[in-house]
Automatic annotation (TrEMBL):
Name by which UniProt lists this protein: CoA transferase
Claim: Glycoprotein is one of the keywords in the record: no
InterPro entries in the cross-refs: CoA-transferase_III_domain, CoA-Trfase_fam_III, CoA-Trfase_III_dom3_sf, CoA-Trfase_III_dom_1_sf
One Pfam family named in its UniProt record: CoA_transf_3
Single GO MF descriptor: CoA-transferase activity
Keywords for the protein's UniProt record, in alphabetical order: Transferase
Species whose genome carries this gene: Cerasicoccus arenae
UniProt keyword Transferase present: yes
C-alpha cells in the first residue's frame, strides 16, 4: 500500500508515525452521498487505503449538492467535504469497455468493496458480488441500500427522510399537535454507516480466521429500526402505544421532568432524576404533590409547565451549578455555533483543522474513538475528483502510456492540485 503523503498532514496536528488498526487493508469505495462515504471514511480514519471510485467530470453526487447554496474554495460542497477524508480519488468510467480489466485488477487486490447503488446496478456494470467473489474469494463485499437488496420496496429510492418517516421516527419527537417531526440530522444515513463498518469489520475478522470473504448487506430501514429497538420492544410486547405529549417531553414514553426547559438566557436539558431532588433544586416544596411515578407520567404536561415557569427565573449556568451540586442529570443546550466552545468539547479536541487543496483551512470533527496502540488519524483531506487517478493506476501496474491514453480519451480524469 502506498504511504499517505506527509504534505497533507493537518496544519496543527503532528502525525504519529505508528501502526494503525487497518494499515494494509485496501478498500474500493463505489459509494456516494452520505451512508456509504461516511462508512468508508471511518475505515480510512483507522488506516485503510480507501480508493474512491468516481464518475469522470462530476464525481460523487454529493459534490453537486450543498447547504444554503454556499460553496468553499469556489466549488467545494459543504455536504461532500465532511464525509470523504482519508481517501484517494480515481475518476474512471465504469461503463467503458476499456476500464473493465482495470477494475477487475483492483478487485483482485482489494480486501473490501463497499457500494450503495440501487439493487442490481453493480451486477449490470459487471461487478456484482458473484463476479467479485470469483475474482477474489477473500473479498468482503458490502452492499448498502435504502430498503434492502430485495423485497417489495427494492426498486424504490431510499433516502434518509423517507426512512425516518416509514420507520416511525418522525412520530417520536416534538409535540402531538406539531405533526411528524424529522430528526434534524441525517440519522438514517449515519446509523447505516455504522452498521456497514461493524459488518465489514466482523467479516474481516472472520476472514482472518478462515481465509474466506463474504457478502455483507446493510439497509437504512433496518438500521433505524434497530436504533429504535427499545421503543418497538415496548409497543410489541403488550404495553401501550407511545403518544407524544403537548409539553414536548423529550421521549414519549417518559414522564416529567424528562425534557428541555427554558431558562433566563437559553435552555437546559433535564433527564431522569429522583423527583424529590428536582423539587429541592427548584426550591418549590409544593411540587412534592406530584411525587408518584404514575402521576409524573399522567400529568407530565402540567408538571412541565410548573418547572418551566421556575427555570425561566435563572440563567442556565446558575441552574447547572445548583443542580449539578445535587448530582442531577442535567446539561446545557448549545446552539451549533457554540458547541465547539464548550469546555468538554475543547478538552476532547473533538474538532480540528486540516488543509484542503482548494478550500484551504477547514474545520472538521476529529476521529471520535481512541485506540491506545493503533490510533486513528486524519492524514488526507477530501480528494478532488480523480486527484489520485494516475497514482493509483501506476500502483496497480497500468503503464504510463496507457494512462495517458485513458486521460486523453476522458475514460479516466485527473484534477491536479495547485
Amino acid at each position: 500500500m502506498a504511504a499517505f503523503a506527509p504534505s497533507l498532514v493537518t496544519m496543527n496536528h503532528a502525525i504519529n508515525i505508528m501502526q494503525q488498526a487497518l494499515n494494509g487493508v485496501k478498500v474500493l469505495d463505489f459509494t456516494q452521498l452520505l451512508q456509504g462515504p461516511y462508512a468508508t471514511q471511518m475505515l480510512g480514519d483507522l488506516g485503510a487505503d480507501v480508493i474512491k471510485i468516481e464518475k469522470p467530470g462530476s464525481g460523487d453526487i454529493y459534490r453537486s449538492m450543498t447547504f444554503f447554496n454556499q460553496w468553499v474554495g469556489g466549488d467545494e460542497s459543504l455536504c461532500f467535504l465532511p464525509w470523504n477524508r482519508n481517501k484517494r480519488s480515481l475518476a474512471i468510467d465504469l461503463k467503458s469497455t476499456e476500464t473493465v480489466e482495470i477494475i477487475r485488477g483492483l478487485i483482485k487486490q482489494a480486501d473490501i468493496i463497499v457500494e450503495n447503488f440501487r439493487p442490481g446496478v453493480m451486477e449490470r456494470l459487471g461487478y456484482g458480488y458473484d463476479t467479485c467473489n470469483e475474482l477474489n474469494p477473500g473479498i468482503i463485499y458490502c452492499s448498502a441500500t435504502g430498503w434492502g437488496a430485495d423485497g417489495p420496496y427494492q426498486n424504490r429510492p431510499g433516502q434518509d427522510l423517507l426512512v425516518q418517516g416509514l420507520a416511525g421516527v418522525v412520530m417520536a419527537s416534538g409535540k402531538q399537535s406539531d405533526g411528524p417531526v424529522a430528526v434534524g440530522t441525517a440519522l438514517s444515513d449515519q446509523l447505516g454507516a455504522l452498521h456497514i463498518v461493524y459488518g465489514v469489520l466482523a467479516a474481516l475478522y472472520h476472514r482472518e480466521q478462515t481465509g474466506r470473504g463474504q457478502r455483507v448487506e446493510v439497509n437504512l430501514l433496518q438500521s433505524v429500526l434497530a436504533y429504535s429497538m427499545q421503543d418497538f420492544f415496548t409497543v410489541q410486547n403488550g404495553a401501550r402505544a407511545f403518544t407524544r405529549p403537548e409539553s414536548g417531553i423529550a421521549h414519549p414514553g417518559n414522564g416529567a421532568p424528562f425534557g428541555i426547559y427554558p431558562t433566563a438566557d437559553g435552555y437546559l436539558s433535564i433527564a431522569m432524576n429522583p423527583w424529590p431532588k428536582v423539587v429541592e433544586a427548584l426550591d418549590e416544596p409544593t411540587l412534592m404533590r406530584f411525587n408518584d411515578p404514575q402521576v409524573l407520567f399522567d400529568r407530565r404536561d402540567e408538571i412541565y409547565d410548573h418547572i418551566a415557569t421556575i427555570t425561566l427565573t435563572r440563567k442556565t449556568e446558575e441552574w447547572l451549578e445548583i443542580m449539578l451540586a445535587l448530582d442531577l442529570w442535567v446539561a446545557p443546550v448549545n446552539e451549533q455555533k457554540a458547541v465547539e466552545n464548550d469546555p468538554q468539547v475543547q478538552y476532547l479536541q473533538a474538532f480540528r483543522e486540516i488543509e484542503h487543496p482548494k478550500a484551504g483551512r477547514i474545520r472538521v470533527t476529529d476521529v471520535p474513538i481512541r485506540l491506545s496502540e493503533t490510533p486513528g488519524d486524519i492524514k488526507r483531506p477530501p480528494p478532488l475528483i480523480g486527484q489520485h487517478s494516475r497514482e493509483i493506476l501506476e500502483e496497480y501496474g497500468i503503464s504510463g502510456e496507457d494512462i495517458d491514453h485513458l486521460l486523453k480519451t476522458g475514460v479516466v480524469t485527473e484534477e491536479a492540485v495547485g
